[in-house]
């Protein structure tokens, strides 16, 4: 199991070609094809806007070595007190993490 999981990004022409292979094109089949059904996740990511992430500097990659384990220590507390895990990029901590480790 890896920390980062990348899904396949697909071009419009490939999507139309793959969708053309489906029998009996209905709205439900299209939604299941794009997003997956309840049991299975789709192989594709539908991207409406694509913003390129700036390259990380050496200092940001070095910061990742201590920021990520420190963040993992906060996960149980986030789960208990907030009910979910994650950082909003618009918050003060999110902006600080953005400066420390680059795009996330």
- Strand count: 2
- Please mark out the parts with pLDDT under 50 across 5 or more consecutive residues, or reply none: none
Number of helices: 4
Strand content: under 5%
Major sheet strand order: 1-2
What is the N-to-C succession of helices and strands?
Answer: EHHEHH
**Tell me, what's the shape?**
elongated
Major beta sheet, specifics?
Answer: 2 strands, parallel
Ends: how far apart? 19 Å
Taking all Cα atoms into account, the compactness measure Rg is 19 Å
Q: What share of residues is helical?
A: 40-55%
Structural class: mainly alpha
- What count of structural domains? 2
In round numbers, the mean pLDDT is 77
Can you walk through the features of this model?
There is one protein chain. The chain is mainly alpha-helical and 104 residues long. The chain has two domains: 8-45, no CATH class; 58-101, no CATH class. Helices cover 50% and strands 4% of the residues. The protein has four helices and two strands; from the N terminus they run βααβαα. The protein has helices at residues 12-20, 27-35, 58-81, 92-101; strands at 8-9, 44-45. The protein has a two-stranded parallel sheet with strand order 1-2. Helix 3 (58-81) runs antiparallel to helix 4. The radius of gyration is 19 Å and the shape is elongated. The two termini are 19 Å apart. The mean pLDDT is 77.
């Amino acid at each position: 199991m890896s920390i980062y999981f990348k899904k396949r990004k697909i071009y419009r022409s490939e999507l139309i070609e793959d969708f053309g292979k489906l029998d009996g094109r209905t709205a439900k089949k299209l939604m299941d094809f794009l997003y997956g059904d309840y049991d299975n996740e789709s192989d594709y990511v539908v991207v409406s806007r694509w913003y390129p992430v700036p390259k990380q500097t050496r200092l940001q990659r070095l910061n990742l070595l201590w920021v990520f384990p420190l963040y993992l220590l906060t996960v149980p507390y986030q789960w208990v007190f907030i009910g979910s895990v994650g950082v909003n990029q618009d918050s003060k901590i999110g902006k600080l993490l953005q400066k420390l480790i680059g795009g996330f």
